[in-house]
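Ligand-bound model needed. NAP.
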Amino acid sequence: MIKTSLFDLSGKVALVTGSTKGIGRSIATELARHGATVVISSRKSEACDAVSASINDELAEHPGGAVSIPANISHKAELNSLVNSTYEKLGGIDILVCNAAVNPAYGPMSDLSDSAFEKILTVNIMANHWLAQLIIPQMRLKKSGSIVVISSVGGLRGHEKLGAYCISKAADLQLVRNLALENGPYNIRVNAVSPGLIRTDFAKALWEDPDTLAVRTENDPLRRIGEPEELSGIAVYLASDASSFTTGQNFVVDGGSTIV
Ligand SMILES: NC(=O)c1ccc[n+]([C@@H]2O[C@H](COP(=O)([O-])OP(=O)(O)OC[C@H]3O[C@@H](n4cnc5c(N)ncnc54)[C@H](OP(=O)(O)O)[C@@H]3O)[C@@H](O)[C@H]2O)c1
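Prediction:
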């Protein structure tokens, strides 16, 4: 069969962490619309079931679809089960999107507790490293795979209040470069996406007050924050054959805020 679209994901399996809301949900939905079978995963099983059902309802007559497999990515054993259950249900993983992240601390580095720092590094970096370790061996056997790590523009500059989170997001960019180098010879591509401010629950404190939002966006080229759906196009590109010569890169999707 001739593939009519560079962006066709028919027959591919995609695992998206943190895919019950926000950016992860948008990415998973769009990967499924492009033909992939997606694994919807977060800590809450009811939320995973509801999002999977919604995607399956939308795509009833189409190739893509969704299955629900809950997991807390801060526990290595749960990541093991997540990957093994995916293999049992769907046979393998072609696309990994490391999207889930946390930020339990707001304030200067001088006040940061060890427990908050450890939690941020475990969920935002170690879990992505663990998932890559678990999934890459079967991608190597197939000589094919795409990994996308959701970083942040916060990983590109210093920050007075989100220091540990930004350290974790900068480390994600280095993880991407390391994995791209190690796995390029196996035709596994690894890239990062760095969103600017996006209208999700995660970033609510930065956009829910109209005055704060106006100040935050007044000098940005597009004069607005992004919507979760505006991150899904770059994920489809990076997951698909359209990006077959693209690896080790970071794609900033921020309405131009970092050029100002
Ligand atoms: N929104 C922004 O402005 C912005 C900007 C730059 C980068 N980002 C990045 O974009 C990514 C997605 O953020 P978002 O804004 O879409 O957040 P969100 O709307 O709050 O969604 C977060 C998702 O992750 C899941 N999750 C949280 N902790 C988890 C854990 N320990 N294990 C498994 N799943 C977990 C949540 O579900 P449960 O609660 O059910 O587990 C939810 O599905 C993150 O990597 C974030 O750093 C966001």
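The beta strands are 13-17, 37-41, 65-68, 95-98, 145-150, 188-195, 250-253.
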